[in-house]
Design the sequence.
């Protein structure tokens, strides 16, 4: 740890203790953090994001031993997932302890918990000694930030301190598994960095994906994870016919291919084509940054090819496909 990092961590903790908002780097996306025990600070998160109050927050904790301070009746599979995956891109939804404030949970009897895998976030959590409530640090419904600059672009002065931890390693939000009704009724609420194969290996069976639910999870809002441009998600073999049908628009297309370690941009007559290499994890890592950049270049429509699990690896493919379909809307 450098002296500059130690000072940045201390500043983040000072701001959190004073009830301020700190943008925190994690391995998934940047979070907009507040001291989870400070109801006024938590309320500021909702105001800053423009987020409906019934939309629960994830509480980030320093390690699995802190689970019991927030949750009760924790089933064995939740303990095992925490043991094998944390710190990592997995959020567990569990029955909350009675003292946990309704402001965090949107009035639900459950609480989402996660130990993030980023050294700066973990250092802040350890020094603070409590939980940090943090949704993604973007305005409600928009693309999540995967760099400190994205946070500044979206939230500006509304955030008191941005802890810059570089670009997010994974680039897509955590997998959310609901275990609040026990191991037998475990369901995935949102696919993410921990894929179906990893979950099945740990659980000894596949954990089903819940397509719709009465609880407030992303996907109930048509514009979730959306760029400003209209997004069209297609299978790779539909690319040519789709582009041919988009006359007179400024088109950004995102396609899978090989690169030499960075997204490959090329003008293609009426817009931009961006090649991302799934073998290098670029589809997840760069997706949100590329959506922002295509917006900034003035594209009116973005055509993105969905990954195929066989080619791109099942673990992240389901999360990428989920985000593209949600950004595309119904
Ligand atoms: O990777 C991530 O999960 C990032 C980083 C910052 O940790 N956080 C994140 O938070 O994506 P957010 O708030 O943008 O998305 C979390 C989703 C919310 O849409 C919320 O509805 C759902 O998790 N969630 C949180 N607590 C829940 C609960 N108790 N029951 C059901 N869903 C819950
Ligand atoms: Mg979000």
Sequence:
């Amino acid at each position: 740890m450098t002296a500059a990092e130690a000072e940045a961590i201390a500043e983040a903790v000072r701001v959190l203790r004073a009830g301020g908002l700190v943008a925190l780097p994690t391995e998934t996306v940047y979070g907009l953090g507040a001291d989870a025990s400070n109801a006024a600070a938590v309320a500021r998160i909702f105001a800053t994001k423009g987020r409906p109050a019934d939309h629960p927050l994830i509480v980030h904790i320093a390690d699995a031993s802190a689970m019991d301070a927030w949750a009760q009746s924790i089933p064995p599979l939740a303990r095992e997932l925490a043991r094998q995956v944390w710190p990592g891109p997995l959020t567990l939804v569990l029955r909350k302890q009675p003292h946990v404030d309704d402001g965090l949970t949107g009035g639900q009897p459950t609480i989402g918990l996660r130990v993030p895998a980023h050294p700066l976030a973990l250092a802040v959590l350890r020094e603070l000694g409590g939980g940090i409530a943090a949704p993604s640090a973007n305005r409600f419904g928009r693309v999540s930030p995967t760099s400190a600059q994205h946070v500044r672009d979206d939230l500006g002065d509304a955030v008191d301190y941005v802890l810059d931890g570089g670009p997010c390693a994974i680039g897509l939000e955590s997998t959310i598994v609901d275990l609040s009704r026990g191991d037998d009724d475990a369901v995935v609420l949102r696919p993410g960095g921990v894929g179906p194969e990893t979950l099945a290996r740990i659980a000894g069976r596949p954990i089903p994906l819940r397509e719709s639910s009465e609880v407030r999870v992303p996907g109930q809002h048509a514009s979730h994870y959306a760029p400003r441009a209209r997004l069209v998600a297609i299978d790779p073999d539909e690319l040519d016919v789709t582009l041919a049908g988009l006359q007179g628009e400024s088109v950004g297309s995102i396609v899978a291919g090989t690169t030499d370690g960075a997204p490959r941009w090329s003008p293609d007559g009426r817009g931009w084509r961006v090649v991302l290499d799934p073998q290098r994890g670029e589809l997840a890592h760069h997706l949100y940054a590329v959506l922002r950049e295509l917006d900034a270049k003035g594209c009116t429509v973005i055509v993105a090819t969905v990954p195929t699990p066989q080619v791109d690896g099942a673990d992240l493919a389901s999360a990428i496909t989920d985000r593209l379909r949600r950004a595309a809307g119904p």
